[in-house]
């Protein structure tokens, strides 16, 4: 279990600079029920880390505000790629002759 930041000024999502106060406020005023809704409203979890750093804390704050458990809140919907992929890694993937010809046209 993670500890929720005690102060509203604490930055929870460093990538998008979202504070604990903004998350608590959105959960109260907007009735946000989960991290995917929170992502849509505040962009937390949409930065380069894709919520890997802030996700557990965002869930904990929503649960705290709604008076429930993090397990009931759930986690971000994970989508591929599960981890960031560089352009160099994509370029190094094997290519079929058909895929090369499709681009050359």
| Elements, N to C (H/E) | EEHHHHHH
Bulk shape: elongated
Number of strands: 2
Compute the average pLDDT: 87
CATH class of the domain at 11-80: Mainly Alpha
**What is the percent of helical residues?**
40-55%
Strand order of the largest sheet: 1-2
- CATH architecture classification name of the domain at 11-80: Orthogonal Bundle
Beta-strand percent range: under 5%
Low-confidence stretches: none
Radius of gyration: 18 Å
Structural class: mainly alpha
Distance between the termini: 54 Å
Could you give a short account of the major beta sheet?
A: 2 strands, antiparallel
CATH fold group of the domain at 11-80: Arc Repressor Mutant, subunit A
Query: What is the number of helices?
Result: 6
Description of the molecule:
Helix 1 packs across helix 3. The N and C termini lie far apart (54 Å). 28% of the residues are buried. This protein has a two-stranded antiparallel sheet with strand order 1-2. It has a domain at 11-80: Arc Repressor Mutant, subunit A, CATH 1.10.10. It contains six helices and two strands, in the order ββαααααα. With 105 residues, it is mainly α.
Brief digest:
45% of the residues lie in helices and 5% in strands. The protein is mainly α and 105 residues long. A two-stranded antiparallel ribbon has the order 1-2.
What keyword list fits this structure?
105 residues; mainly alpha; Arc Repressor Mutant, subunit A; two-stranded antiparallel ribbon; 2 strands; elongated
């Amino acid at each position: 279990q993670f500890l929720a930041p005690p102060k509203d000024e604490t930055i929870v999502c460093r990538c998008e600079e979202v504070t604990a106060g903004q998350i608590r406020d959105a959960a109260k005023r907007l009735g946000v029920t989960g991290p995917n809704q929170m992502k849509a409203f505040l962009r937390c979890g949409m930065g380069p880390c894709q919520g890997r750093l802030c996700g557990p804390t965002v869930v904990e704050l929503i649960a705290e505000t709604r008076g429930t458990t993090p397990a009931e809140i759930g986690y971000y919907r994970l989508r591929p790629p599960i981890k960031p992929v560089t352009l160099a890694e994509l370029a190094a993937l094997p290519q079929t002759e058909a895929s090369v010809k499709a681009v050359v046209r």
